[in-house]
Amino acid sequence: MSLPPVVDADWVQEHLGEPDLVLGDVRGPNAHGRGHLPRSIPLVLGSPPPLADREIVREFAVEVQRRLGRHGVTGAERLVLYDRGDCVGAAASAQAALLAGHPHVAVLAGGVAGWPGELETGAIELEKSKPSLEARLDAVPTWEELRDRLEDRQLTILDVRSADEYSGRGGYPCDPRQAHIPGARQLEAERLFAGPGQPHEPWAVRELVGLPEGSEIVAYCHSGSRSALAALALRAAGYDARNYPGSWHEWSRHEDLPAER
Questions:
Q1: Domain residue limits, the chain
Q2: Residues 165, 170, 174, 175: is their CA dihedral positive or negative?
Q3: Percent of the chain with pLDDT over 90
Q4: Which of 16, 150, 211, 222 is most buried, by the most CB atoms less than 10 A from its CB?
């Protein structure tokens, strides 16, 4: 079963109607009812929680498994998630589905905004299921994992905030400290995208990142949205990339965690 991390509208149109393809609209049931991709279902999974330790992540994984089951998603299908078009919601939901243990998850680049065909309207009937999924807790890095791996040369921590945020010259006033995680490299998330919800070609992303394909990367930003997008583009480019949802908003609150300027 082949499913790249990011698919485009042409790919979906080519495979639409295949029995193992499920399109999940993460915008919510109201938006879905007003206009959705053909044969799609409303599928709100939520985002991995910030300010989370390993136990909270475990509890969230179980809740996502329940939500998948309530919408008839078993884990045997190819699951393609989409949002309004910027991929922020879809990228976070994809991480939630991977955390729950779904083995085949992708995001539709451009979402509804980039769909060239007709949209369907109205509510649909959902069939409940009992998915047989084993949570993959490593899909969501926690502050504990990063703390314990700061000296791990196999892991690249990528700060996808602005240069001012990275250096500590700027940032959000809600954060008690302005700096970055020690050893992190900096690359703004926007540079990985050709436009909203449209990652650059894999070769171009790899050229920007400057790491061999397959390298392990954890991306972070201020509160996990930009880094969810960055991780999506990085996975599409062939990296073993994950998003740290707590990001600097969480890290800066732990006084015992080191910071670098």
A1: 6-137, 141-251
A2: positive
A3: 92
A4: 222
CATH 2.60.120.260 for the 141-251 domain, yes or no: no
Element (H, E) at 70: helix 54-70
Tokens of 14: 């080519």
Going from the C-alpha of 213 to that of each of 169, 206, 226, 239, the distances in angstroms are 32, 7, 21, 5
Domains 6-137 and 141-251 share a fold: yes
Return the structure tokens found at 135: 């949570």
Whole-number Å distance between alpha carbons of 57 and 71: 21
Query: Per CATH, is 6-137 categorized as 3.40.250.10?
Result: yes
Amino acid identity for residue 246 in this structure: G
CA–CA gap between residue 25 and residue 247 (Å, rounded): 26
* Residue 22 DSSP symbol: E
Model pLDDT for residues 172-200, shown as the tens digit of each residue: 999 999 999 999 999 999 999 999 999 99
In this structure, are residues 234 and 209 in contact, taking their beta carbons and an 8 Å threshold?
A: yes
217: nearest Cα among 246, 183, 250: 183
